[in-house]
Amino acid sequence: MGSKNSGVRDPLQVVEAALRGGINHFQLREKGDGALTGSALLEFALHCQRLCREYSVPFIINDQVELACSIGADGVHIGQDDAATQEVRQLIGADKILGVSVHSVEEAKIASREGADYVGMGPIFGTVSKADAKKPAGVKEILAVKNELPNLPIVGIGGITAENAHQVWQAGVSGIAVITAITEAADIAERIQLLQVPCKEEHRT
Ligand SMILES: Cc1ncc(COP(=O)(O)OP(=O)(O)O)c(N)n1
Ligand SMILES: Cc1nc(C(=O)O)sc1CCOP(=O)(O)O
Ligand SMILES: [Mg+2]
Known about the structure:
39% of the residues lie in helices and 13% in strands.
C-alpha cells in the first residue's frame, strides 16, 4: 500500500495495525494520484521501514529501486514495464528480496532465471487499486506456473478478499498480496486472520 490507500485513516496507523495484526511482508507502493515524491516520500518510506523493523517484517519497495537501495530496504518488487530483473538483482545484491510480476509461464521462467525470489501474479479478480491492471485472469495461469516451476514461490494479487482468498490459496500460492482488503477493514487484525491460509484439511494443492 501507499500513503493514499487508507482513505480517511492515517496510513501509518493502518500500516502499524496490519503489522500488529500479523502481516509477514509489507510492500510500499506509492503511485497514482497525489503520490508522495521527493523528501515527503523519503520520510514516509523511512516511517514505514521503522515500523516494519519494530515488528521484524521485511520492508519491500515497489518500482523505486534507487529509493530501496538508498535506505536499505529488504527488497524490491518490479513489473514487466519496470527495470530488467537481472539489472535490479545486480543493483540490490544477492541477499535482498526481489519480486517480479509475471503473467505467463514464459515470463515466470525468465524472472526466475534472472534472479527473482518470487513472482507476483494478477489480477486474479477485479481490482480498484491499480489503474492499469490487466483483465482479471483467475488462477489458471498460477496453476500453470506452479506446474512448470513448482519451487518458485508465487504471490497472488488483485481483488483478493476474505471471501475469495481460499480459491487463491488452493491454487498453491506461497502468499497473497492485498491492499483494499486490509485498508478498508474496520478490524484489520480480524481481517488478516480471515485472509490467511485455510487450515490444512481445506488447503489442497
Ligand atoms: C506482489 C505484487 N505482485 C504484483 C505487483 C504489480 O507490480 P507491477 O506489475 O509492476 O505494477 P505496479 O504495482 O507497479 O503498478 C505488485 N506490486 N506486487
Ligand atoms: C498492485 C496490484 N498489482 C496487481 C497486478 O495485477 O499485478 S493488482 C494490484 C492491486 C491490488 O490491490 P487490491 O488488493 O486492492 O485489489
Ligand atoms: Mg511496477
